[in-house]
Amino acid sequence: PTVHGTMEPPTPPRAQYHAGGEASTSTSADYSTVAVSFEEPFSAILHDVSSGVSGGMESATGDPYVRMSASKVPNQKAVANVGSLPLGAMVTPFAAAASGAAPVVLRRDPARCARCLAFISGFCEVDTRGGRWLCCFCGFDNADTRLAPEPSGELRAHPELVLSSVDYLIETSVGATSYLGGGGGESEDGKGEPTPVVFLVDECLDADEVVALKHSMLEIVRGLPATTRVGIATYAASVAVYDLSAAAGVASAEVVPGTRSPMPSDLHSLLYGAGTFLAPLSSCLAAVEAVIGALRPAVSAAGPVHGRPRCLGPALETAAALLKRGGGVPSTLDPSGGEEAKGGRVLVCIGGPATRGPGGITVEEESELYDFEEQAAKTYIDELSTTVAALAVSVDILAGGRAAVGATRLAPLVAATGGIVLLLEDFGASFVSNALVAARRCAGRSAVLSVRASPGVACARVIGAAEAMTTDAAAALTAPSLLMLAGDRELNISSEDTADVFRLKSTDPSQGVAVFFEYTEDLPANFVYVQFVLWTSSGPGAARVARCMTRRLPTTGSQRAYLRAVHAPTAALLAAKKVALDAQSSAVGPAEAVQRIEARIADVAEVFSPPLDGAEPTLLHDFPEELAGFAEAMYHLLRGPMLGRLLGHEDERAVARAHFLTAGADTAACMLVPQLYVWRGLDSFEQVPPADLALQATDALLLDHGTAMFAWIGRDVAADNTTAAAARASLVTFGETLARGRFPVPQVKVFNQGSSAARYMVSRLVPLHRDALHEQDARYPPVQLLAPDARKALTESFLPTEEPSFVLWMRELGLAAPTLDASVKLFMESG
């Protein structure tokens, strides 16, 4: 496929369905006013338009919110619960829909089942003559007068009976203009109040780092909205919180001890004194600039970078107390609300590990006291995580120094608060772009996701920035706001919400959750239904929004039909998220996680491609061709930055896994299987398999690896200055287009063939040059266009390596790699 980096997709027309079951297109259809006449129950019409709401393969690849791992599911428990091939969905509830494809907003309460509280959808049997509908989850016969025909015989259109995703605006309040929190601090319509931000700056940096940090900090604060309330503090041996009411050019601060957790007496002047420590940028920009200008490097006697005194723990406690006292609005979906849950964001600019006060490690790693201090630091961080998360404060840690910052110890803090750890090369351009996005993100736990499935199908696990909620807490946030009636009388039945409910720690559009399903019994029904409902709010007393996403999957008793229906990229994402979670846990660890990948592939081959009875034994066991893309994704996971040797320090690999665990479907797919593009001139790019045979001197390439991007310019292209400049500009522009909306924000690194930096790209590509010619032809078809001499020269140009190709790796496992051009299928499906 050819991709043009500067082209915007056309706006698709909205379908308007009529009583005859045919669809006409109109870009101006208004569902709130369109009236439709029916001569038969609407459920009959739904059979004609069900393709618009079915959960088929088209939905799996093009749906911005929900991507199922298969378009058909087995009806047998034994097949569905094969752990090596997960069954589930990637849910990215805040994903930005394509232009013109955003869900319809219905300004009313949804119709919900009186028994199980499921939302009505196009998969329910609806009788408009009697105003009744059958729940597709529990089969209960519901009555709703809103579905009954009007005296004129007409019924106002109900888009929830045609569309698979709709938004309900519930309990509308006067003046509630923002109804769906996105990933920014501002509301979706730009009228909401930005999230308060406190900058915590490490004072133990070297001189060149301070120069870069000061320049970047000025760019960041000047790039934030003028209404953003900011505070600024520095930390070293103690914590200094700066007064932003001081005259321009003067920097004054309240000092808090760094050897222990701050006491109320330490914070009294800060929280109740006459100074202003959190103020809108419109009134304090000059003071903030003065504070930034006053930053100084560590003194020469401070010692090595990693050993300089940094009281990060007390600094975080101080910042959280400041936000608690003068932060933003109470957490929007927190029933307690009140003064104790103000909300805000702490953005830490760090250059080394914490070495002073609680949470710090004062001894070297070789010391006999190191294990004791490390355990004490972990215990403190766990307690601090609970405290800060309860205040609806999010913590982002941006490291740009030369020393390791102890990312694995800080991981629980950012995970609990919905923040992120970023390990950057310096405090330059990448630091600025990521800090600006981080400062604009919404803070606090303001979204809830409910997961519901047909009887016999259970939600077994959710992986991502989410936490399970108690039944009472979930009921308080997702209960219907109106009394459900049957005709004119109250229902005399007991309602019980059968959904599993999770609180989302982040509302970032690029983040999502992986949902795993398991069967509790064999399924006699012809279809399985799943429903995801995202609950958000713009503030206390304001409207709630429920985004309902319902999908239907046919069941099959054929194992081969199930394999053909598996969407390999999504199934691979689910499996990879489970592996990354195992690698992060102390009970499993990275080494054991690698072995589990290999065992997973072997188990898939054994279960879904068993040897035929009476067949002669072979050296290599067959692997299902339908799952070739799944196997290749596991190969990339094994050698990629999360588990392989691409990143040198375990902190870097742990951070990469943390990013992957919270990433949405699109970003996670690129992090798992790198996407490779060849520049074809102007703004045209062609996607090719991620193999080293693409590294030809006559081409320029862009490799998208999710949180990192690399542009490679071939020797012949670089020889012509004009062509090289055009290629460089096109590669950077196209990379920025692909990265739009992602967080972390990847930077495009550009280098020429043969340079030292070229190893970043070469190491991420499949070493296909090690395979036989016919295997190269199958897995990288463009190589067949080369002349024999040119092809031989290309394969001989690579340095010797022991890194196996995908084919060799499968052989090491005793498996025969699928003979289809699986690489081509994989990058087309995942792209």
UniProtKB/TrEMBL annotation:
<dbReference type="Pfam" id="PF00626">
    <property type="entry name" value="Gelsolin"/>
</dbReference>
<comment type="function">
    <text>Component of the coat protein complex II (COPII) which promotes the formation of transport vesicles from the endoplasmic reticulum (ER). The coat has two main functions, the physical deformation of the endoplasmic reticulum membrane into vesicles and the selection of cargo molecules.</text>
</comment>
<dbReference type="Pfam" id="PF04811">
    <property type="entry name" value="Sec23_trunk"/>
</dbReference>
<dbReference type="InterPro" id="IPR029006">
    <property type="entry name" value="ADF-H/Gelsolin-like_dom_sf"/>
</dbReference>
<dbReference type="InterPro" id="IPR006895">
    <property type="entry name" value="Znf_Sec23_Sec24"/>
</dbReference>
<keyword id="KW-0963">Cytoplasm</keyword>
<keyword id="KW-0256">Endoplasmic reticulum</keyword>
<feature type="domain" description="Sec23/Sec24 trunk">
    <location>
        <begin position="197"/>
        <end position="429"/>
    </location>
</feature>
<dbReference type="InterPro" id="IPR006896">
    <property type="entry name" value="Sec23/24_trunk_dom"/>
</dbReference>
<dbReference type="InterPro" id="IPR007123">
    <property type="entry name" value="Gelsolin-like_dom"/>
</dbReference>
<dbReference type="InterPro" id="IPR037364">
    <property type="entry name" value="Sec23"/>
</dbReference>
<dbReference type="GO" id="GO:0070971">
    <property type="term" value="C:endoplasmic reticulum exit site"/>
</dbReference>
<keyword id="KW-0479">Metal-binding</keyword>
<keyword id="KW-0862">Zinc</keyword>
<dbReference type="GO" id="GO:0008270">
    <property type="term" value="F:zinc ion binding"/>
</dbReference>
<dbReference type="GO" id="GO:0005789">
    <property type="term" value="C:endoplasmic reticulum membrane"/>
</dbReference>
<dbReference type="InterPro" id="IPR036175">
    <property type="entry name" value="Sec23/24_helical_dom_sf"/>
</dbReference>
<dbReference type="GO" id="GO:0030127">
    <property type="term" value="C:COPII vesicle coat"/>
</dbReference>
<protein>
    <recommendedName>
        <fullName>Protein transport protein SEC23</fullName>
    </recommendedName>
</protein>
<dbReference type="GO" id="GO:0090110">
    <property type="term" value="P:COPII-coated vesicle cargo loading"/>
</dbReference>
<dbReference type="InterPro" id="IPR036465">
    <property type="entry name" value="vWFA_dom_sf"/>
</dbReference>
<keyword id="KW-0653">Protein transport</keyword>
<keyword id="KW-0472">Membrane</keyword>
<feature type="domain" description="Gelsolin-like">
    <location>
        <begin position="694"/>
        <end position="759"/>
    </location>
</feature>
<keyword id="KW-0813">Transport</keyword>
<dbReference type="InterPro" id="IPR036180">
    <property type="entry name" value="Gelsolin-like_dom_sf"/>
</dbReference>
<keyword id="KW-0931">ER-Golgi transport</keyword>
<feature type="domain" description="Zinc finger Sec23/Sec24-type">
    <location>
        <begin position="110"/>
        <end position="142"/>
    </location>
</feature>
<dbReference type="GO" id="GO:0005096">
    <property type="term" value="F:GTPase activator activity"/>
</dbReference>
<comment type="similarity">
    <text>Belongs to the SEC23/SEC24 family. SEC23 subfamily.</text>
</comment>
<dbReference type="InterPro" id="IPR036174">
    <property type="entry name" value="Znf_Sec23_Sec24_sf"/>
</dbReference>
<dbReference type="GO" id="GO:0006886">
    <property type="term" value="P:intracellular protein transport"/>
</dbReference>
<keyword id="KW-0968">Cytoplasmic vesicle</keyword>
<feature type="region of interest" description="Disordered">
    <location>
        <begin position="1"/>
        <end position="25"/>
    </location>
</feature>
<dbReference type="Pfam" id="PF04810">
    <property type="entry name" value="zf-Sec23_Sec24"/>
</dbReference>
